[in-house]
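Record 1 of the preview.
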Amino acid sequence: MKNSNKINGGFPVEQCPFCLINSNEIPNKKIYEDNYSCVFLDKSKDVNYHMLAVPEKHISTILNCDSKTLNHLMNAIQIVSKHCVECGFSGINLLNTSGEDAGQSVPHLHIHLIPRKKNDNIDAWPNFDGSSVSTEEAYNLLKIN
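->
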């Protein structure tokens, strides 16, 4: 198989679980779908109502996603997020990891959606150890000219 069929040195695109979900080759519970994106329930059962939003076409990370696809994906996320509020939730967490070093486990762009209610006892924010660089140092490295 050619390298162009591989993603992040991982499995062949034809075996990407999110592509297989998009094509309904893997059973799934799609909450929303349009021509560009879909949102489905995560099978991990790690937190109630956990969903994943993915683009229909295979894109490995947000870092190499074209703006049109990302726009469509965010639109789908907004539709589902508003629907969650209509279903009785009062907020939503959106979580993304892009790249293996950031903790991405499936090399297909995906954004986790976790609907929230007051006092649901979900701690979805990472526990950081504190910054070792000053704000000035971070600014000088990261500012876009």
